[in-house]
Design brief:
By secondary structure, the protein is of the alpha/beta class. It has one domain: Rossmann fold (3-Layer(aba) Sandwich), CATH 3.40.50. The protein has three helices and four strands, in the order E-H-E-H-E-H-E. Strands 3-2-1-4 form a four-stranded parallel β-sheet, covered by helices on one side. The chain is globular, with a radius of gyration of 15 Å.
């Protein structure tokens, strides 16, 4: 069996309900980390956490909307209160900005 590099580490991934954030969280989980999935999409995040748990990844969800002022600091305090510490923070959340291409083919 290979050594799991993040065994017993607490890893917070923002925007982890889908896409790149979900993939990052899953990769850390496969390396033994306890994952805190941070997102504002409750339904999707809870499904993701359930998937992780089926794959034997320790995962929990925190509903947090990081688009509001002062919330990132509150997120850190909430994580520490919930699980005692934070070892790794992956700030993947975006504000959902839309890109529009004009002209060209």
């Amino acid at each position: 069996m290979t050594e799991r590099r993040f065994k017993n580490k607490i890893v917070v991934v923002t925007g982890a309900a889908c896409g790149i954030g979900k993939s990052i969280a899953g990769a850390f989980g496969q390396e033994g980390a306890r994952i805190i999935v941070v997102d504002r999409d409750v339904k999707t995040a809870e499904v993701v956490c359930a998937q992780f748990r089926r794959d034997k990844v320790k995962a929990e969800f925190l509903k947090i909307d990081l688009s509001k002022k002062g919330v990132p600091q509150k997120m850190i305090r909430a994580v520490v209160k919930k699980v005692g510490r934070l070892d790794v923070l992956i700030n993947n959340a975006s504000a959902g900005q839309r890109v529009v291409f004009i002209g060209g083919e």
